[in-house]
Every structure is written in C-alpha cells, then in structure tokens.
Amino acid sequence: MMPPESNYYPQARVLILFLSFANLVYGNFLSQNSRHDPYPMYTSRDPHHFLYMHDRLEMKGYDSGKTTSEKIGLGLSIWGQNSDSAKDFYKNYISPGNLDGKWNMYGLLMGELPCGKTLPPSLQEALCALFPGEKPPIENPLYIDPNELCGFFDVQTKYKNRGFRFDWSVELLADVGLLIEGGLSDICYSVTHFNDLTCGAGVICGCSNDTNACTTCDICAVKTNLTCPLKIIAKEIGLDICNYHKNSLEDFRAHLYWRHAYELNYDRDGWPETLIMPFLVISGSAATGTTKDPNVAFALSSGNNGHNSVGFTAGLTLDFVDTIEIGAEGGFTHFFDKDFCRYRVPNSACQSGIYPFTTDVCISPGHNWHFAATMNARNFLHHLSFYFQYVIVQHQKDTIRLKKCDPAFKPEVLEKISDWKVQMANIALNYDISPSISIGFLWQAPLQQQRTFRNTTVMFSFNAAY
Predict the structure, then answer these.
(1) For the chain, what is the domain count?
(2) Per the domain annotation, does 187 fall within a domain?
(3) What is the domain extent for residue 421?
(4) Which among 140, 197, 319, 426 would be 20 to 30 A from 75, CA to CA?
(5) Of the candidates 68, 62, 76, 48, which has an alpha carbon nearest to the alpha carbon of residue 3?
(6) Domain with 93 in it: what CATH number?
(7) Measured in whole angstroms, how far is the alpha carbon of residue 144 from the centre of its chain?
C-alpha cells in the first residue's frame, strides 16, 4: 500500500528513482550447477517479501489494505533466455561452443590408448597419414598449433530457453515459512557453424626434444584426414554433434526460512525510523531436471545436471520508513556426488573440446558461493515498485574420479577448466492491481562472466499473497 501522499513529495520520488539505479539488490537463495543458467529466477516479486509485507507496513504505520497477515503466496511466471556468446577464463568473448576450448582434432591422435580401446578407422588413417613412421603413443604438445588454428574448429552456437516457473510459499509459524519452486523448460542449443580454422594456419613446424625430428603441418593433409571428415569421426567415436532440443522439468527446490523485523529508533526524535530484519534460509533441490548426456555434444541440463544439492543463505535488510530498503546476504551451495556412465574424459593433455574415449566416473561438483547486496523502492510511484539486483556466483573446481583405474585417462584436464564465475543484474518492476495481487516484469542482464554463457533473461510474473 502506498504511504500517505503527504509524506511523498515529488523531489523524494525522483531521489528514490535515482537511488534505485545506483544501489544493489539480492534475489534468490540457491545457486545452480549450470554455466548457462547459474542463478535462475522464479518471480519478479520483491525478493524480501517473505509473506511479511502486511506486518512490516503496519510496523511503519501504513495501511496494507489487508485485515490479516499473509499466510500463502503464489507466483506464476513465463520467461525466455537467449545467448550467442560467452566469456573464457580471461574474460574474452567466445562462442558458447568453445567454453571447454576450441575443438582440437589433432589432439584426438595424441595420448596413450585406454585399456581395451583402439582408435576408430578414420583416426587410425589420420594417424598414419600425419605421423608416418612414428609409433604411438604420440604425446608432444609441439605438434599442436600454439595459435589454435591448424586442426582446430571454432564452434559457433546459439542457445535459447523458454519456460514456465512457479513459486508457492506458506507461513508455518509466526516467523517461519516454506517456499517451494519448480518449473518447465524448453531448451534449444544449436550449431550455426563449424568454422574450420585450418585454412588460416599457414605452415606450422613442431620439433620434438627427444628425437630431434621435425614435422610440418600439411594443411591439405589435415583438412583431408581430420577436419573435413568431422561427421565421420564423430560417428565413429560415438559423439552426437546434432542440434539439441528438449522439453523437460526443472529441478524441484524447497527453502525453509526464518525472518523477523525489529524496530529501531522507535519514539526517538531526530533519528530515522527503521526496521531491521535478519533472515536465514536453509535450502535444498532434488534433481528432477534432465541430466546432460556426455555423448551428445550440445546437450544441456535443465537443472544441476543430476546432482542433488543443499545450501544456506543468511542476510540482513534495513527498511527505512518513507524511503528505501537496503541489505546484504551471502550463501553457499553443496552438490552431492553422482556417477556417470560412458563419460568423455581426455586421454591427453593436448585435447580440448572433443575427446575420443569414454569411461565411467564419479563427479563431485565444486561448491557454489554467492554474495549480493540489496535495494528496493516499494510503491515509489503510487502502486508501482522497483528493485535492482546485483549478484555474484562463484563455482569451485570439480573433482572427477575414475570408477576403474586407467592411467591413460586424465580427468585432471577437465577438473582444471571446471571452475567458473558470473556476475549479473536483475531489474524488476511490479504493479499492484489489488492489495493481494500484482503483475511484474523482470530483466536479468549479464555483467561479467568467466567460463559461462553470456545470456539475457526476460520474465513476466503474476503474484498473489493472501
């Protein structure tokens, strides 16, 4: 409910609108093990709502338009997400298809063969043509073009996701509530172009320190034996490189929260009337979303890639009467181990992007840490509210363990590139069409990335609290 008009001068409205763009906000409680959607949003509503708005307005001396406190809340949202770019560890713009490095076809010929494995016919022919007279295993990084041109693909891709999400909350006790979140998604991840970089490589010379042998990258031989037969090689190693499109459930998430607002400076002349509200959230997610098939090159998970998770968030808000609400919070997410069959693991440190062999592994994802700060301007223009959210999520390195020991496989190559970091902004407008119902718009904008998609999300929400 809008505070009394006498307390809201036009200058104050302008000031609050300016502060809305100058300060920071928090929103979610549980980050995700996902480089394309690390911090999913489920509603445009004020992230500090907590079924607590009636009580907080009454503490500030305003009429909420309701006779009792909120007991149940519901949010229904439709959303869309797009990306055709990403950033690498050094924050350089790349295609999302190159997040694990450009596809190195030369690398497929390198390394020891795993136990019981042989090179498929096309790679065996390429090995004989490009390394005549040499005995495997070939493990010499000097054969790899340092400019990542000869034998490399720049994989240009586009990502699109559309879906429906809901959040349902209920007050269990006076200061304790439960929040449930879930949704459906329609993921489309397509290849726009396999860009063969070999033609721009020129002549590359590599010398082995052990044999003093010198070889030259024959562009025609590389194209004939490695890059032109990409589809044949992919089929022989069991890798599906077609476009990916799948409808699925997302992970099911639950949050148990405690919050309580305390009045500061009550009846103290000359001091700002303020509500201080600490809160604590314990969260968990069940892996009801899809798990990425490691043998489908462009498959994406609709959740934590099959990993269940738990986490906590703790924070504090300051609600200044007649002006704005600010706050800060920090959180942690732990992901449980999961076994994967026929997972692609490199057998050479020279490989990137594409790997020829598979094995069974157990993956322990690194922890997620997130931090955010908060600002919210409620009803700064009659029934219109605004908030701006900044959040940073950091994912630590994964641990990948072979289920069956084989010294040929090198999971440490994947572990080294498994950490990532993302910063984003959520900007939302919500309009109250009744004391209990609002409609809203949210824009999630990318700010900075390391080894993640650079995506943009738009959401429209219907929110109710009774």
Answers:
(1) 1
(2) yes
(3) 5-101+158-196+239-465
(4) 319
(5) 62
(6) 2.40.160.40
(7) 31
How far, in Å, CA of 70 to CA of 117, rounded?
Answer: 63
Which tens digits make up the pLDDT trace of 105-157?
Answer: 999 999 999 999 999 999 999 999 998 888 888 888 888 999 999 999 999 99
Is 224 a domain residue?
Answer: no
Output the six-digit token pair for 65: 């338009």
pLDDT band at 219 (very low <50, low <70, confident <90, very high): confident
pTM above 0.85, yes or no: yes
Q: Does the residue 294 lie in any domain?
A: yes
Give pLDDT, residue 64. Answer: 67
Non-local (6+) Cβ contacts of 153 within 8 A are 102, 103, 105, 194, 195, 196, 197, 227, 230, 353
Locate the DSSP E strands across 223-298: 244-249, 252-259, 262-264, 274-286
Contact 332, 397 (CB under 8 A): no
Give pLDDT tens digits for 47-106.
Answer: 767 877 767 777 777 766 776 778 899 999 999 999 999 999 999 999 999 999 999 999
Tokens of 348: 């050479």
Specify whether the CB–CB gap between 318 and 324 falls below 8 A.
no
Which pair of tokens denotes residue 130? 């490009």
Reply yes or no: is the peptide bond before residue 96 cis, omega within 30 of 0: no
The answer to whether 332 touches 369, Cβ cutoff 8 Å, is yes
Evaluate whether residue 106 is within a structural domain: no
pLDDT tens per residue, range 145-192: 999 999 999 999 999 999 999 999 999 998 999 999 999 999 999 999
